[in-house]
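Q: What structure does this chain adopt?
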Amino acid sequence: MARLGNISGKEAVKVFQKAGWQSLGQVGSHLVMVKPGIRVNLSIPQHKELSIGTIRALIRNAGLTVDEFIKLL
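A:
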């Protein structure tokens, strides 16, 4: 399994957009993303660096694997 490095909130948003997620709006420092047909919303902090636990939780909620996420990165 590949490793997750230093990923910013902007980079994470670009990856999720490649996977079909769309920006719904922003609440404070978090960008909310939705995907048609999926009931889960992603709330991505717009920080310079996201913690690995936060990235993994977002990947799991999006229905992706870490390897799929890294390929899209």
